[in-house]
Amino acid sequence: MAVLNEEQTMLRDSARDWVREKAPVGAFRRMRDTAAPLGYDPAAFAEMAQMGWAGVVIPEAFGGSEFGYLSLGLVLEEMGRTLVASPLIASSLAAASALVMGGSETQKSEWLPKIAMGEAVATLAVDEGPRHDPLRTALKAEKTGAGYKLTGAKTFVLEGMAADLFIVAARTSGQPGEAKGITLFLVPADAKGLSREQRHLADSRGYAALNLDEVELGSNAVLGEADNGADLLEKTLDRARVGLAAEMLGMSVQAFETTLDYLKTRVQFGQTIGSFQALQHRAAKMFTELELTRSCVEAALTAIDNDAADTPQAVALAKAAAGDTLHLVSREMVQMHGGIGMTDAHDAGLYMKRARALEATYGSTAWHRDRWGRMAGY
After folding, report:
1. Is there a common fold for 6-120 and 231-375?
2. Does domain 6-120 sit in CATH 1.10.730.10?
């Protein structure tokens, strides 16, 4: 429903064509069945980078196109339709945004051109427990003469097995639960004392757990301001959250369209099941929720592009709405396809599994409802 300019329309259409031709759901299924170690196809990601997708939110001075967050959201929506696996959200959206907003000129010059070209993958390392809670950061960053020494662990790190750079949230002062004292650090994947272990989630994507055992970093590894990184972290996470919401929107749209096609062709008792009023009502409910979710997601992306004061509220609403809608549509997709919807041979299960993983990533639906309520004063 957003009014797109010519460049955005061309970007969306080219993404739609590439996804349909080069990355159908079958490509994801093959990657899953072969247990790809990185959780995505590096050759496919290289093509995405060549098309400029990895640099959409990166300034031109650092090798990007600076097309904005709505533009990247259009790409992510199209990718969500066929469950395309890539580091775009983790690296080209989340990590790139953190560097753009908080990085020094040296840090930007070192990493942003590589991210824009797809030559390096970066990601956030935030959560330390089973649920998203950035302020509960406990990983310790102890000040030393030359810089800092980091000790602790992170879990559920997106694209953690592929990353060349981790943006790690650590505590330089204060107690877990406090905003004051959180500092972001740039930690290269080959840093001495850093180890990672693959985590297998239901959606068959690339996740890792990190262990930092007295990882020594120079003071130039600090991203932004020491002790005051909570605001930068929250702004970065909001960009990642709305990227996830855009992917979830694309998944919901495709799941709905696939189900609708089935309702129009499956015959029972001598007539198509789409003629049954009960199923029509359920389809109408899904369509309505999809339209509302699109409004929320596009409003949040536009708010980020415009640096709007209510961006956090818009992002919380978008992630919560996308979570609710995807949960509804992915569940209905299985149910309305009947017996075949419950088999691995059908794509319905792939959408449901990815839906459950995304709902919990960077804040569940309930978490964002609570966040929105607190910001609204309830």
Report:
1. no
2. no
Range in 92-96, 163-167, 267-271 the model is least confident about: 267-271
What kind and span of H or E run contains 271? strand 271-272
Calculate ∠ Cα 293-200-206, nearest 5°. Answer: 65
User: What's the mean pLDDT when you consider all of the chain?
Assistant: 97
DSSP codes, 18-67: HHHHH--HHHHHHHHHTT-TTSS-HHHHHHHHHTTGGGTTS-GGGT----
Looking at the domain that runs over 231-375, which CATH code has it been given? 1.20.140.10
> Phi, psi (5° rounding) for residue 206?
-90, 110
Looking only at the bridges linking them, the beta strands covering 182-188 and 207-218 are unpaired
8 A C-beta contact, residue 160 and residue 186: no
Domain ranges for the chain: 6-120, 123-227, 231-375
Dump pLDDT digits (tens) for 227-275. Answer: 999 999 999 999 999 999 999 999 999 999 999 999 999 999 999 999 9
Tell me if 181 sits within 8 A of 227, measured CB to CB: yes
CA distance 53 to 108: 18
* Helix then strand then coil, % of the chain, to nearest 5: 55, 15, 30
Cα dihedral sign for 257, 259, 263, 266? positive
Q: What is the CATH number of domain 123-227?
A: 2.40.110.10
pLDDT tens digit sequence for 37-62:
999 999 999 999 999 999 999 999 99
CA gyration radius for the chain? Answer: 21
Q: Where does the pLDDT of residue 1 fall: very low under 50, low under 70, confident under 90, or very high at 90 and above?
A: low
What is the rounded CA–CA span in Å between residue 252 and residue 240? 18
